[in-house]
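Researcher: I'm preparing a figure for a lab meeting and need a structural model of a single chain. I don't have an experimental structure, so a prediction will have to do for now. The sequence is pasted below. Please return the structure as tokens so I can convert it later.
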Amino acid sequence: MQKQQITVGYIELTEDESESLFEKVQKDKGIEGYAELQGLMDDFDSRVIEPSEEPLQDMLGEEAPAEESDKGTRYIEVFNKLEEDSRYRIKASKQH
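Model: Understood. Here is the structure written out token by token.
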């Protein structure tokens, strides 16, 4: 089966993000293809979850260890906008 890009809410997922979502939804909902996934995602919405920025220097003052430049991991959360249903969280491809 060939990878495809899936759109959820206002976010168009990359092929890798779409594959990750497909694997999670396939296990949960028993879907068999990307067309079925896209049909299911028409009732879902998504949001980007930014990594929280809590610089140790602000919290600990002079005792804080040197911080790495990596500010955390950005995720995309997919959720049903019509009813309480499964939520899926996948790692976003773009981490800038």
